[in-house]
Batch of 2 targets.
Target 1
Amino acid sequence: MVKVILKANSDKGLINRNIYGHFSEHLGRCIYEGLWVGEESPIPNTEGIRNDVLGALQKLNIPVLRWPGGCFADEYHWKDGVGPKSQRARMINTHWGGVEENNHFGTHEFMRLCELLGAEPYISGNLGSGTVQEMQEWVEYITFDGESPMANWRKQNGREEPWKLKYFGVGNENWGCGGNMRPEYYADEYRRYATYVRNYSGNQVYKIACGPNDSNYEWMEVLMREAARFMDGISLHYYTIPTGVWEDKGNATGFGEAEWFTTLKKTLFMDELLVKHSEIMDKYDPEGRVGIIVDEWGTWYNVEPGTNPGFLYQQNTMRDAVLAAVNLNIFNQHNKRVQMANLAQIVNVLQSLVLTEGDKMLLTPTYHVFDMYQVHMDAQRLDLSYESPGYTFGDETIPQLSLSASRNKDGVIHVTACNLSHTDELEVVCQLEAGQAASVSGQVLHHTDFGAFNTFEQPEEVKPAAWEGLVLENNTLRFVLPPASVGVVAVNG
Ligand code: AHR
């Protein structure tokens, strides 16, 4: 049993809704097949965007969607992807699988997808192989409301009104696939490119610099020292790879207890990364103006047998669900610095929300976690104090419990909780200090098999259920988390 004190009237700041953001890259079957099937497809669609996937994603109220990459972004030339589709450049997606890219999904299609989702677009510009002019013109094309070559071209291509574009990334992974740059060199390049990412017609761009890969603290140090004043946010990428070995990352399914434990242990490193990167940022930005944008995170396993290794297609189990929940709790906890996070990736790539096969679609366990956690979006984080019991495997121990709590604008308190242990249930006794709780309800995501997943034959093998047995007495909330589970509780005043 663990005792928790929840200060119901505390205020630890707003949880930016963008923490619940997503990422879509021209990679494998994410854009083509996953999101976009084209107007002529027999798969029911809205202006080329498949209806089943769209409907599922709309339910999540996705706040922000990143596009077009990823590594693809630094090879993408946006002008290839506008105008009549029959005339769009056909090319090879050299980075991802060497397949044809016909550019049918471009700027107009992405902005339309965001409109249909009600999501803010987050575009990653090409610094690695594109020009300053190309980047400047993209922003002009999208946002300028007046007479100019790019605005006129946009109008010719069927869009009279400019769009609003808030989030713009000036390069991606420029320490790696985005040009293999040194931090000093990238910092200078960032400053140059970002200068021409202009605010047209009242549109205010939130500029995001390419930040470090996991624990590259030197990259963060140099970027903050040399370029902090030219940026609004800086990215951080961290993928959870069970083995930590790139050549054999471990499989998405069929894993054992040791892999379960190691994967969760590795994912908890996200907390240390945020602590340490925040410390560096505090030196150069003590007011906390620059946000951490965790614009790629999630699990990365070996691809499913028989699939194109360049497509990064993987299944998604209860392990991914618990891992997603743990990370979202961590991001909530770091709500002062973390202003956005984007799970990689939304459909059919890495830790997806949705998988498709032809005209079939399934929701992954990770999808259900994002559904359950929606309640934290734009809510006030609440103070929690507790000491988690340890979860020991072999001679290693990690915390068994991961928690987060917030109060929404209607005064409803939500607690999200995960039990990392694959063997032991956990009773939580949560004393609500101040406030008067009247009723409680909740949902729990659990399966007797910690490796359970949804298939196209059995798409509802893993899904949340009403959480029976929640008790609220004398302002004390009690619940029992089954092993390897995620729960959400709503406490009404
Ligand atoms: O998400 C897959 C890839 O991982 C992205 O393209 C890249 O930015 C990262 O290395």
Target 2
Amino acid sequence: MTTNKQVLEWIEEMKGLCKPDSIHWCDGSIEEKGRLEQEAISKGELVELNQEKLPGCFYHRTAINDVARTEHLTFICTTNKDDAGPNNNWMSPEDGYKKAGEIFSGSMKGRTMYALPFSMGPVGSPFSKIGVQLTDSRYVVLSMRIMTRMGKTVTAELDKGTDFTRCLHSIADLNADRRLILHFPQDNTIWSVGSGYGGNALLGKKCLSLRLASYLAKNEGWMAEHMLIMGVERPNGFVDYIAAAFPSACGKTNMAMLIPPNGLRHKGYRIWTIGDDIAWMRVDSDGTLWAVNPENGYFGVAPGINSKTNPNAVATVKRGTIYTNVVLKPNKTVWWEGGDGPIPNKGIDWQGKQWKPGMLDTDGNYINGAHPNSRFTAPVINCPSISHRIEQHHGVPISAIIFGGRRAHLAPLVYESFNWQHGVFVGAIMSSEMTAAQQGTMGKVRRDPMAMLPFCGYNMADYFGHWLKMGKAMTKPPLIFNVNWFRTDENNSFLWPGFRENLRVLEWIIDRCYDKAEAVKTPIGFVPATESIDMTGLNIDAKAMKQLLDVNPNDWLDELKGISEFFCQFGDRLPEEIWDEYTALEGRLQATGV
Ligand code: OXD
Ligand code: MN
């Protein structure tokens, strides 16, 4: 245990509420891991996978009603409703503690309460934050052990009296009507009850590293963002680091682990992975922006991952990985839709039922063996492209920030903002067609500024203001770009092949940072001049390329309606600069004379 009095008092209090049979303070050791795995296997919470083929790997199934983040049950509990903003569900702290308290009350009877000390970010780094999670789920302990730095070194930090985030979690009875994910930014506290799904239950991830961290970052003058971080090693050996924000399940993991396409590999490019989901960024004494990945693992979407789309991820999940809601094959290995073949001729699906490829439900729809939001939890260190700088307490310098979304028709393949303020606007108008990572209507367009809509722990108007302020604090801010890998033609076929070919766009982006690539000014920003993207070895005809880079003023004028509706929700709180950029864009679009 720790000697930190505040931790001990809080645990005592939570023990009184949840009434576990016993408490176990996690030391993060291998012995502890082995013991928890064996217990989880004997209780049916984990299945041991084929240890010859998948050493150190386990399989887990969530409850059928508990397969994705539940945004409608996720709340920011601040004294003033306006401080949470229209982007968040709100509850008063009193109501939050009372409502969740009733569900937590006695929820751990007959179970052990695990207390796990964890650090987001390298232990002891000025970027890092410490949390203590109390949970009654062994799956959560074992997953947090992968996703965070957990155990003795963190206990030693806590012993120094370091402040920490209080993270209380119980699966309770996994009843969706008794499920709440509550954040109390003013108390540095998270209470999550009724869910065992990673995004709701691994409290170091979305809850701490984005919702609470974004609030702390605003107050402390740094940034907590839903961004991958990758290093692009250029042919001269210099590595530029990029941070990129895409909504959930839009390919951040693939991009972070990209392998250069053959056409560009001969130039000598190489990618170094730092993180695939979250970036914590600070302005350094040199006036530039530096970033760390606070996580220690990947909680990635499995379907679609294969040796072609993401060979590095395939290698990453070959050992020490917990798979959730994928297909369990008879030989105790795993498979998912869009995974490497051959397709197994039978297996057990994510619901625990016998499954065969081609099975149809009563409506004649194909029954997925793996849930579309099935996941792997794997250590960062497994990734063949992992950067040696992940443990550096100082992080890496960021040359470019990229925003992106899944838009079939509107946004060009890539465009560059005119300056930081315009770049903040470009992030603020981000939108995407929904995917399986959120419960909701698939395919519907939703506005998702900086991919932070579900993760910004305070009023998003103030968040935009914070971005503007951060730009002023930098002498050399990163350039800001927007990409769209998902543009389609008249037959709804993707115009751009995506995946490793995206490096061609990254090359253009980095060249722009050094004033080396040509661009054309359009009303929305700079787009690549024809032939300024290296297409060696990739056959895309001129018509498709033109469509990919097209900026249609009418479509954009139409888009402005949804943007203004979104902005209006924030009333007077929206920074003037954002409306200035809106008006300027409208003027530029109208000036094109359409
Ligand atoms: C994730 C998400 O799991 O964004 O990273 O939903
Ligand atoms: Mn994410």
